[in-house]
C-alpha cells in the first residue's frame, strides 16, 4: 500500500548508504505508559504508529511509580483493551485517610464524590500495554539512540534515530512527544515558542517497596511534626511507603531500620504492624515538582504526559493526567483520519490544559497541606487551620474527594 503524501510505501523500508527510510502515520517518542497507551488506542483505530524508546523494555519496567487510578483512567484502559488483569487484580478503594496530630480522619471518597479509585501499580499497566503490543503488529523500537525530530513545523515531519550503528528515518504525519520530562521532544522546541510554569519544592520523597501484607486498609497520608509520610500498597502482599526527606539525603543513608523507625513515628504506632521487620525490595528518592508547559502543540508535534507537565505525587495524578492527554490526542487523530476534521487537533492543547491545571492545583494543595515546609509561623498556622477545616466540613471533604477520584475527562 502506498502513502499518498510521500509516495513511499507505507511501513516499508528503502535503504541507501546505510540509511533506512520508512513511513508511518504517527511516530510516538517514548514507551512509558503515555506512549504505549497512545500506540494501543491508535492500533485499535487502524492508525499506523511506530514507538521509539531510548531504553530497553526491562529498564522501563524497572521504574517504580505511583499506583492510584481514577475511574476515568480505568475506563480508558478498558477501551484500549487492557482492562482484564486490572479488573481481576486491581483493588477498589472507597476512601483515604489523613493523619494529623496523632489522629486519623477518613475522607469517604465513594460516599462524597460517588466514585472510588483503583489501586494498581503503574508498572503493571506498563507491562499489560507492552504485552498487548508484543502480541499485535505494532512496531516498537527499544534502545533507539539519538532520536531527533526533523521538520516538525511543517506538514511533512520526519524522525530519525540510530540503532545498531544504522541511521533510520521515518516520514510521518504527526509526532507524539510522550518522552517524559527529560525527553527530546519538548527540548526540540525553541524556548520562545512556549511558556513554562514551575514550582520546585524544598524536599523529596524517599520511597520503599517491601513484600509484606499492608497493615492498613486504605491509603494514609500523614502530616506529622517530623514531616509527611504515606502508607500505600501495590497488592494484598506488597506495601509501598514514603517519608518526606531532605533533597540532600542519599538512599544509602537510609537503612531499612532507619526508614521504618521514621515511618512509625510519622504514621503512628497503630498503623505500623510488623512492618519494621520487612526487607526493602527497592528504595529511591524523588524530588517534588510542579511543571506545566503551554501550549502542548507545535506544528505537527503534540506533547502528552510527563513531557508536558509534572505534578508532585501527593495527589496521585501523574499517570491519570498522562492518560487523559493521550485519550484526547487519540480522539483528535482519529477524527483527523476518519472525518478529515481538524478541529479536535486544534483544540487539543486547550482541552488538555483545562484538566491539567485543575490537577496541578489539587496536587499543589495536597502537597502544601501535608508536608513540613521551612517557613514562617503564619504559614504553619494556615496549614493547621486548613486541615482542621477539612476534618470539620463536609463541603471541604467533598471538594477533596471530587478531585482525588478525578474530575471528568
Ligand atoms: N528518545 C526516546 N525515548 C525517550 C527519550 C528520547 N530522547 N527520552 C525519554 N524517553 C523515554 C523514557 O525512557 C521513558 O520510557 O520516554 C519515556 C517516558 O515515560 P515516562 O517518564 O513514564 O512518562 P509518561 O509516559 O508521560 O508517563 C507519565 O509517569 O512519571 C510518571 O507521574 C508520571 O505516572 C506518570 C507517568
Ligand atoms: C504509591 O502507591 O506509590 C502512591 C500512592 C498515592 C500517592 C503517591 C504514590 O499519592
Description:
The protein has 409 residues and is of the alpha/beta class. The protein starts with 13 loop residues before the first strand and ends in a 5-residue tail after the last helix. The protein has an 8-stranded mixed β-sheet. Strands 10-4-3-14-21-20 form a 6-stranded mixed β-sheet. The chain has a 5-stranded mixed β-sheet with strand order 1-2-13-12-11, with no helix packed on it. It binds adenosine-5-diphosphoribose (APR) and P-hydroxybenzoic acid (PHB). Adenosine-5-diphosphoribose binds next to helix 1 and helix 10.
Features:
409 residues; alpha/beta; 8-stranded mixed beta sheet; 6-stranded mixed beta sheet; 36% helix; disordered N terminus; binds adenosine-5-diphosphoribose
Number of helical stretches of at least 4 residues = 13
Helix content: 25-40%
- Round the mean pLDDT to the nearest integer and report it: 94
Bound molecules: adenosine-5-diphosphoribose, P-hydroxybenzoic acid
Total strands: the figure is 22
- Strand arrangement, major sheet: 8-7-16-17-18-15-19-22
Q: N-to-C terminal Cα separation, in Å? A: 36 Å
Low-confidence stretches: 1-12
- Tell the overall outline: globular
Strand content: 25-35%
Sheet with the most strands? 8 strands, mixed
